[in-house]
Amino acid sequence: MNKPEITAECFKNGFNCSQAVFSTYAEEFELDKEQALKIACAFGGGMARMGDTCGAVTGAMLAIGLKYGKSKAEDDAARDKTYSTVKDFVNEFKLRNSSIVCRELLGFDLNNPEEMAAFKEKNPGVNPCPKFVKDAAEILDRIFM
């Protein structure tokens, strides 16, 4: 299985979108999968199911930070590389999906119990999120090559 498939499978196995994306790449950058799953847990559903930035996007941002991020105060080049890579990622994700905002991508605000129920009713057994995690992984694969 390739990383986009692994990411989608991780999501289908009960982890959130951010966990699925970030944990798929974490070991490549010497972070153990269990730690990666814990780190990314709060970002699912657009940040704790608040419908903001899509968890697949935040998971990708975490992976980009893990690969390129600044770890020394004076390393502005690493910060700049991280920021420019995140911007490239976001631009491509938006081209594919029109937004990076969870509630816009889903058409529902999962933080609102009535909208969460409507989302589940409208999408029985069908969830658009595996597409978003696969897109995020495909974009990361291209960026990390």
Name its key features.
mainly alpha; globular; about 65% helix; 8 helices; about 140 residues
Low-confidence spans: pLDDT under 50, at least 5 residues? none
Class based on secondary structure composition and strand pairing? mainly alpha
Please tell me how large the radius of gyration is: 15 Å
**Biggest sheet features:** none
The oligomeric state is: single chain
Counted up, domains total 1
**What's the β-strand tally?**
0
What is the ordering of alpha helices and beta strands? HHHHHHHH
C-alpha geometry: globular
- Give the overall pLDDT as a whole number: 93
- Helix segment tally: 8
Strand content: under 5%
Task: Classify the helix fraction into a percent range.
Answer: 55-70%
End-to-end distance? 17 Å
List the helices and strands and how they pair.
Blueprint: H1 3-12, H2 17-26, H3 33-40, H4 55-68, H5 76-97, H6 102-106, H7 113-122, H8 129-144
Helix pairs in contact: 1-2, 1-8, 2-3, 2-4, 2-8, 4-5, 4-8, 5-8
Folded structure, characterized:
- The chain has one domain.
- The chain is built from eight helices and no strands.
- It has helices at 3-12, 17-26, 33-40, 55-68, 76-97, 102-106, 113-122, 129-144.
- The model has no long low-confidence stretch (mean pLDDT 93).
- The longest helix has 22 residues, at 76-97.
- Helix 2 packs parallel to helix 4 and helix 2 runs parallel beside helix 8 (129-144).
- The protein has 145 residues and is an all-alpha fold.
